[in-house]
Amino acid sequence: MSAVETTAAPASDGGPRLIPAPRFVVGLILPILLAVGWEAAVRFGLATGRLMPPPSRVFATLWELAASGELARHIAATSLRVAVGFGLGVVAGTLAGAVAGYSTLVRRLIDPTLQGLRSIPSIAWVPLFILWLGIFEESKVALIAVGVFFPVYLGVMGAILSVDRKIVEVGRVFRLTGPALVRRILLPAILPAYVLALRSGLGLGWMFVVAAEFMGASEGLGYLLVDGQQLGKPDQIVAAILCFAVLGKITDGLVAAGSAPFLRWQDNFRRED
Amino acid sequence: MLTIDGVGRVYPNGTRALERIGLTLEAGEILAVVGGSGCGKSTLLRLVSGLDRASEGRILVDGAAIAEPHPAVGIVFQEPRLLPWLDVADNVGFGIAHLPRAEREGRIAAVLAKVGLADYARRWPRELSGGQAQRVAIARALVARPSVLLLDEPFSALDAFTRADLQDHLLDLWAESRPTMVLVTHDIEEALVLADRIVVMQPKPGRIAAETRVALPRPRDRLAPEFEEAKRRILRSLDDTLSTRPRGEEIAPAAAI
């Protein structure tokens, strides 16, 4: 609404005209104010900035890491882990959610167990995964996959269970059965909930990759965090945190943007910007 | 032609919803089924549509027994039940996806023009009013060219003006291809405007209590004295069927509290 009003503001009234600004600019005001304030506080000697480095130091560290190629290596390692873990979690969660949603028998069989497993704090799996899969990539990917699995499983199962019987009957009236009913009625009906499940799964994937990299990694953004703590480099920690924020936002935006063309029909669908 | 022969329906929990319904409709006839809620009129329609299966008896459409949805039988539900992810044209064409593209598109355009929504082909269902959505639902049923069209209280969710408008519109559409129609409604006036014959149903178990032919010529004037007289007659028979409820079943008097 507000964007429409701003861009449509009359230019001919001669008065001072507001520059048309996208809505997200408003959201930038607070973080920028905080950053500038902290920078000024350190510059004017109000704070030492030893434990919480000013933005300029954080960006200098980021620049150093980027220039040496280190940053790209760490980002690539972390992203790859998230990508593989997310992929595995999504496939498993989608399959399990689909059968559990479709078949009452399967649901009664597996859902209580899965709900039980879901209530286990994810970090509790770490020792077991290390025993089973070693301390290298496999255990990390497994932990991420577990984190992604549950929201996707729940989302798909819930979506299938809540498909409107009345809509399914429309398919039956036109004699759709089996695969055609799934493709033409069930899949489009569950798509919005599925996209939401993917997005929350992805968020958990980024969360779990940190836990995974804490359990011993020689590269990755999580390694930068641990390394920064052990060597007393808070600027490196904040730099890594910033990278997580940017990567999380970008990947979430990609999923949202990728699904948007299929969800244009939705009554309540609003692009996030 | 539609034959409903000794049809009964017992729910899995043992409740009997319908008992020995027998009706024969000639090709092109419009039958209205009226009755209070719970009299089994919608259940009957679901059996004819093949969505549910009769416990006893049989239903024949042009000689073929109905046990599951049949291509010659179309249905319009109380709600439009449009698929929200398809635009109006794709909703209308949902049931004729097997036809070649050119024929499919021709039929969709033709039926949309008939229901007066030619300009709405690329709209989403959410952009339609209730009356427009129900017209799309009617178009979706008609585009498959059914010989029997079932209507389950199709206009009950609409306001009075839209309802009267769509009733007249439905008659125009019927006049073009003359499908046999079964209309379930609780609105006596609607039944009198549309039907050749009206069947009054009675609950517990659902059965036919009265049947009357509507001899009024079409188009029917809702304000004509003959129309009023016919309406009174049906209302009286409906009243009779409802008052047969045994006294003992009446709700406990408020004075007992």
UniProtKB/TrEMBL annotation, chain A:
Keywords in alphabetical order: Cell membrane, Membrane, Transmembrane, Transmembrane helix, Transport
Q: Main location per UniProt?
A: membrane
Entry membrane topology: Multi-pass membrane protein
Q: Where is the ABC transmembrane type-1 domain?
A: 71-255
Give one GO biological process term.
cellular response to sulfur starvation
* Transmembrane parts of this sequence: 24-46, 82-105, 117-135, 141-161, 204-226, 238-263
Q: Where in the cell is it found?
A: Cell membrane
Question: What Gene Ontology cellular component terms go with this record?
Answer: plasma membrane
Source superkingdom: Bacteria
Keyword Magnesium belongs to the record: no
Kindly give the PROSITE patterns that the UniProt entry links to this protein: ABC_TM1
- Pfam families linked to this entry: BPD_transp_1
Query: SUPFAM superfamilies given for it?
Result: MetI-like
The protein's job, in short, is: Probably part of an ABC transporter complex. Probably responsible for the translocation of the substrate across the membrane.
PANTHER family per the UniProt record, alphabetical: ABC TRANSPORTER PERMEASE PROTEIN, ALKANE SULFONATE ABC TRANSPORTER-RELATED, MEMBRANE SUBUNIT
What family is this protein classified in? Belongs to the binding-protein-dependent transport system permease family.
UniProt-recorded name of the protein: ABC transporter permease
Q: Which organism is it from?
A: Prosthecodimorpha hirschii
Automatic annotation (TrEMBL), chain B:
Keywords (alphabetical) are: ATP-binding, Nucleotide-binding, Transport
Return the CDD domains for the record: ABC_NrtD_SsuB_transporters
ATP-binding keyword on record? yes
Q: Which branch of life, at top level?
A: Bacteria
Oxidoreductase is among the record's keywords? no
What Gene3D superfamilies has UniProt attached to this entry?
P-loop containing nucleotide triphosphate hydrolases (3.40.50.300)
Query: What is the protein name given in its UniProt record?
Result: Nitrate/sulfonate/bicarbonate ABC transporter ATP-binding protein
Q: Which ranges carry the ABC transporter domain?
A: 2-228
Which family would the database say this protein is a member of?
Answer: Belongs to the ABC transporter superfamily.
Q: Which organism is it from?
A: Prosthecodimorpha hirschii
Annotated GO molecular function terms are: ATP binding; ATP hydrolysis activity
